[in-house]
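ok here's PLP-dependent aminotransferase family protein:
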Amino acid sequence: MIELTPHLDNEKKEPLYVQLYHYIREEIQTGNIAPGVKLPSKRKLAAHLGISQNTIETAYQQLNAEGYVKSELRKGVYVKKLAGDLYPYSSRISFHNKKVTKNHDEQYKFDFSHGKVDLEHFPYSTWRKLTVQSLYEENSEIFFNGDPKGDTNLREEIAQYVFQSRGVTCSPEQIMIGAGTQYLLRLLTMLIGKESIYAMEDPGFHRTRAVFKHENVKTISIPLDEEGISLKHLEESRANAVYITPSHQFPFGTIMPINRRLELLKWAEAKGRYIIEDDYDGEFRYIGKPIPSLQGLDFKDSVIYLGTFSKSLIPSIRLSYAVLPTALVNQYDQHLTIYKQTVSRLHQHTLFLFMKNGHWKSHLNKMRNVYRKKQHMLVASIKKYIGNKATIIGEKSGLHILLQVHNQMSELELIKNALKKKVKIYPTSIYYEQYKADKPMVLLGFGGLSETEIDEGIKLLKDAWFNEKDENTVQSMNDADQ
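and the structure:
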């Protein structure tokens, strides 16, 4: 039997049983508590943590209801085995059996990961040529440490690009390059302040929440409404910084309308408040006219704009950037230049040449068309095979959708049944912190699959989720719609 030592905070609005439930769930998801392990009895855990047995009982009941544990009469509560790598942040390591579980992608025929992109259309020959060109002797300075913010030439190209494509107004001096958005967020907590209170969308991007947690800054979960983050709840909170994904809310895909953007900017007018605008896949929009970035509407210098090349180019390049307000540029120059640049200067120079010579614009336009066709195929396949037995959420932009399946299955059951057909889909529950989804949903990314694979994968999901009687119902619904 293991010993659990979560940090439970009586000062939080979140009840103790919810805090305990979240802790155990995460430990199971990451593999820190292995399948088959017996959880401590209610009596022993209550005595160990100094809380009531009712609190333990309620947390265990929630874990049991969601399929993480099973209760055996007169034996105890045991962790159940989860099928495959269901959780994107799973460490795949069990510290109890000291074994590393490898991720065997070959067991899946189709992987609807939102983190994968289309590699078939990547300009390999052009990128290779520019990489070699970057290694010429006249560019030998790239073998030395460069500007901590990133190479000036690349920052100049990025400044031009974000202005033309997203309406972001900035100078190269305001741009800070880093190896991924998570690294940049760590630096931002140093610039804004560890004593600040950070608000986050709930549900929201779990990797951002992890950064705030690891940096030991206080976070507040803010629910969503039909236009994005709730201004009412934000104004009632004591937050002085808020992280949002307005161009494609993660994971719901909501595109924040202009009125809500202006309301957010009004909120940020108070002294010392900042909006962190993560525009992680703002390049890909399929319905409606583009809405300018929050940063482009900001005249009070309170928006920090985050962008990345992970979705539009390749994830492994690990090249993201932040556009800082003037006040934070001064803070950076005074305190953070001691941190050396984390992105390879070879990659920086190659990307600079790629953008300068016009390859980037051509590639981005091509990928917009590629992903638009894939998105149309995904939506069409769902309607063809599943019909009204599922609701599509967030199909207007980005490289993923949410699917709410109307068959009485839980999130875990939907994923497990899909795995039986060798189709890998993803949960949405991991993106919730304080609030909870009304109905189970799963996440389907489509960037890394071909149109044929998308169609075949959705057909297999139909087989996984519906029996023959349900299929006849779907067909009759489709016929009625025609």
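+1. Residues 137-357 form a domain with the Aspartate Aminotransferase; domain 2 fold (CATH 3.40.640.10).
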